[in-house]
Design brief:
Spore Coat Polysaccharide Biosynthesis Protein SpsA, Chain A; eight-stranded mixed β-sheet; three-stranded antiparallel β-sheet; 9 helices; 25% helix; binds 2-acetamido-2-deoxy-6-O-sulfo-beta-D-glucopyranose
Length: 381
């Protein structure tokens, strides 16, 4: 079929217009950009702003659907519970000392107090708090313990004692305080009154439940000798080098003794009448038995102590001590904790111990005379 000339011209014109329009339209055409990843789906539509291309980003509805399906909750992991608990948060356990070694080395060299402080005080990264206080962390100590030291003029012994005893008490995991009760003046020493004062003053500080009355010259040789509350009053030092490791006599209660608060109150503490050396511990033994207690003791290899000898001056023996021992149980409810008279002259919390300086009532000494002054008559042992 032959096309007329007119028709042919019309076709060419239309084709020409299409070509022209295509040429105009192509430069301004930009395709829609699709950005997609497994979790996010965006559609970015370009728009023109002078020479810049701006993409209007639309988050498609499918995205949230996609996310929803991707974050479907997983099947929970099963956690095995030993027992369903009905109570609140679990309580910390009772302390169980796990670092005890048994026999320990006794360092008898005399340190400077500052050296001991730098070794043990919290101020220098140690565990002992001001006042000679320690409390275990992360567990509950069985009891609150006061270690009372009747004291006068034994600075060298005290430094050795503190260096040695703090780490042991901390390994035994006691909640404790070391209290040094010093007799003021230079009248005859009265160990028993200082013990009574230590007990009463300790209870003014805190609600202690156990008490160890400790001569400062006794150095423990076995850290398994427990200083906690005893079931019966307890003699802790049973094997002392000074006695050639032999138990001196059946009624012996010297050196280191331990009581619960109730036990000590029940015997009304120690007698106040023993001035000078000796007898007060024998009297305490009579009270313990008189109150119906039996005396407990650790095994000899555990209750082992070394007694420091150097720098040791013994007071003159008390003149009436043997007489007094005949009336121990008669006096015990009127002479003791309930009759002690004293004044606290000073109370100081030093880094490694609490210090109580006490003035005793010397007129209560029934054997009082001019020769009772020390140290002129002190005997070195
Ligand atoms: C006795 C004393 C006790 C003393 C014991 C050991 O003779 O007080 O020796 O003393 N009794 C009397 O004097 C009535 S010691 O060698 O450890 O100084 O505890």
């Amino acid at each position: 079929m032959i096309m007329s000339r007119r028709r042919l011209l019309l076709v060419w014109t239309i084709l020409f217009i299409i070509v022209i329009l295509t040429c105009i339209y192509l430069p301004i055409y930009e395709p829609k950009v699709k950005v997609q990843d497994p979790l996010v789906s965006l559609v970015a539509t370009p728009s023109r702003n002078n020479d810049q291309k701006i993409y209007n980003i639309t988050i498609s509805h499918q995205v949230s659907q996609l996310r929803t399906t991707k974050t479907q909750p997983k099947k929970p992991t099963t956690i095995q519970l030993t027992k369903p608990t009905t109570a609140g948060p679990t309580k910390p356990k009772l302390c169980e000392p796990e670092l005890l070694v048994g026999a320990v080395y006794c360092n008898k060299t005399v340190p400077r107090m500052q050296e001991v402080i730098e070794q043990l005080s919290v101020d220098y990264g140690g565990l002992t708090k001001k006042g000679g206080v320690f409390k275990p962390k992360g567990c509950i100590a069985k009891n609150k313990l006061a270690i009372i030291i009747p004291y006068r003029n034994r600075s060298e012994h005290l430094r050795i004692f503190l260096r040695h005893m703090h780490p042991i008490m901390q390994r035994q995991m006691h909640d404790y305080r070391i209290i040094v009760v010093e007799q003021a003046g230079n009248y005859s020493f009265n160990r028993a009154q200082l013990i009574n004062i230590g007990f009463l003053e300790a209870l003014n500080i805190s609600d202690f439940e156990c008490f160890v009355f400790h001569d400062v010259d006794h150095i423990l040789e076995n850290d398994k000798n427990d200083y906690g509350c005893p079931e019966n009053p307890r003699l802790l030092g049973v094997s002392v080098d000074r006695f050639n490791r032999r138990f001196p006599y059946l009624r012996y209660f010297g050196g280191v003794g331990s009581f619960s608060k109730e036990q000590f109150e029940k015997i009304n503490g120690y007698s106040n009448l023993f001035w000078g050396w000796g007898g007060e511990d024998d009297d305490a033994y009579n009270r313990i038995r008189g109150a119906g207690y039996s005396l407990s003791r650790p095994r000899a290899d555990v209750g082992r102590y070394m007694m420091l000898k150097e720098h040791h001056f013994r007071d003159k023996p008390g003149g009436n001590r043997h007489m007094l021992l005949k009336t121990s149980t008669k006096r015990m409810y009127t002479d003791g904790l309930n009759s002690v008279k004293y004044e606290v002259l000073k109370k100081t919390e030093f880094p490694l111990y609490t210090h109580i300086l006490a003035k005793l009532h010397e007129e209560l000494d029934t054997t009082r005379n001019a020769t009772d002054l020390i140290p002129t008559n002190a005997v070195a042992i």
